[in-house]
Amino acid sequence: MAAQPKKKLSRGRSGKRAATKKYLLPKLSLCPKCSNPKLSHRMCPSCGYYKDRLVFEQKGVTKVSKVST
User: Which of 18, 2, 21, 22 is nearest to 10 (CA)?
Assistant: First the structure.
């Protein structure tokens, strides 16, 4: 048999425990090449550079429109 709680926890005590479980927003930095926001220590999604080096070359973006039938 597992241990059971002896007394009901108050709202304050439960809230103190739950207060440590919070979501943090990611820290963003600016890309030195294109000045767009990006995650630190990761490639820039807009220009493809990481540490002043081209890591990913992006091809021309084409939009696909829906064809009515």
Answer: 18
Residue (of 43, 16, 18, 13) closest to 31 by Cα position: 43
Domain boundaries in the chain? 26-58
Q: What is the pLDDT along the chain (69 residues), one digit of tens a residue?
A: 789 989 998 999 988 988 888 888 899 999 999 999 999 999 998 888 998 888 888 776 566 677 776
The Cα–Cα gap between 46 and 34 comes to 8
For residue 15, what is the enclosing H or E element? helix 11-18
Q: Which 3 state secondary structure label does DSSP give 12?
A: helix
